Amino acid sequence: DDPTGNLHVAILPFMAHGHMIPIIDIAKLFASRRGVKTTIITTRLNAPLVSKQIPTTAEIHIELIRFPAAEAGVPEESETADFFSSTAQKMFFHAAALLRRPLDAALAKIRPDCLVSDAFFPWSAESAGKFGIPRLVFHGTGYFALCTAVCIRVHKPHKNSDSESFVVPCLPGKIELTPSQLPESARKEEEGNPFTELVREMAESEGKSYGVIVNSFRELEPNYADFYRDELGRRNWAIGPVSLSNRRSEEKAGRGGRGTGESSSDCLKWLESKEPDSVIYICFGSLADFADSQLKEIAAALESWGGSFIWVVRKDPRTESESESEEEWLPVGFEDRTAEKGLIIRGWAPQILILDHEAVGGFVTHCGWNSTLEGITVGKAMVTWPVAAEQFYNEKLVTAVLGIGLPVEAEKWVRGTGDDEVIMAEGIEIAVRRLMDGDEGKEMRRKAKELREMARMAIEEGGSSHSSLSDLIDELKQRSHV
Ligand code: UDP
């Protein structure tokens, strides 16, 4: 126990941007509460990514653990988020499992009162058990996706049904999915898929854990929050949207959130010149890597629509000597023709800052949970374009449950097969027009703005997420007698 009488929370992030960003926000949330000491446990190569996200005034300690790359015969860089994005994920998960002994050593040294660890570290429940401390699971998705995943895993509706689409059994709201919209771990179960095995271990380890921390807020998905607790029996605390909690406290302290710097101020300056709700923001998260042929279709759709856009593309920034014609993924002359209307960001964009601007009226998203929730948090309507994992579930939440987005309808507009498969410009343009120019989009923006207000209330003192974190901290303090 901490001699100062603080509750000591240790946090173990998984090294992919979509997991790391919100769990570090969670660390900041804990650290912002009185009587809580927070330590993030991570490896040397990840430490700079972690500290970049922590304001210097936040009292968060970083405990370094050694990554045993050599012993395991994997490249040293396989511990970082960049590796996760670019290379065989199987190897990455193998590497992640190697952190078990270093974690145990760190826990023995720092002796925290509880461990918050990513769901992708199922073995960490046993580590916590060894030291007699509770482990809290962080999944990185919301209630709707958590519930859908359990219902699919338990009932396997895609196995019993020959028909194209099925209604997810047990799940409230008669949600329809097609087998192709399921994550690989569910779709390819019988083939001895390593992800299926991981998902099984994750489910088992959740049973041995103290509870689940959810980055959502109750008012967003009350039916699914209830279902998760009452029908699926998961003890949990919704403390989100975590990005909003931190941004607001950082604003109060006179600091910018993450993503400040040259490019942010350029983006904001550019957005200042645009009318409210006139710009569409297009970004597919930290992992999605579209083929050049798909990027060309997106470019053609944007040009033909003719409205204003900010488009984030996972490409290296152009060097001074490079011209547009050397960039194969962009139609020649595109940037000249759209100079007034469009801004292309090559690499990493200050997403939260852009999304929050009043000029942005729509968001084309891959429906990663962080992006989805960030969009909701600032009241934006969406065109949903899921690519993998639980993104198809998040799409359903946005389109079928919340009514704040419309799908790009990949199955209707797809051309080609395999690596040559693209969603055609025409389909993309139709979705963008419907969202940005029509009454339908206006109504979605109205609803999204209502959710924004609910999100803000949830994180204020007395709001559901704020109280939920207080309850969790009280419970943990009582449990560990601090
Ligand atoms: N993000 C960003 N700039 C980018 C791309 C992504 O700030 O150019 C952030 C985004 O705000 C979100 C996270 O990276 O917090 C992506 O997480 P998400 O769950 O949406 O998708 P993933 O990357 O896991 O597929």
TrEMBL record:
Q: Which domain of life is it from?
A: Eukaryota
**Pfam families per record:** UDPGT
MF terms from GO for this chain are: UDP-glucosyltransferase activity
Which family does this protein fall into?
Belongs to the UDP-glycosyltransferase family.
List UniProt keywords, sorted A-Z. Answer: Glycosyltransferase, Transferase
InterPro entries per record: UDP_glucos_trans
Give a yes or no for keyword Isomerase in this entry: no
Protein name stated in the entry:
Glycosyltransferase
Q: Does the keyword Chaperone apply?
A: no
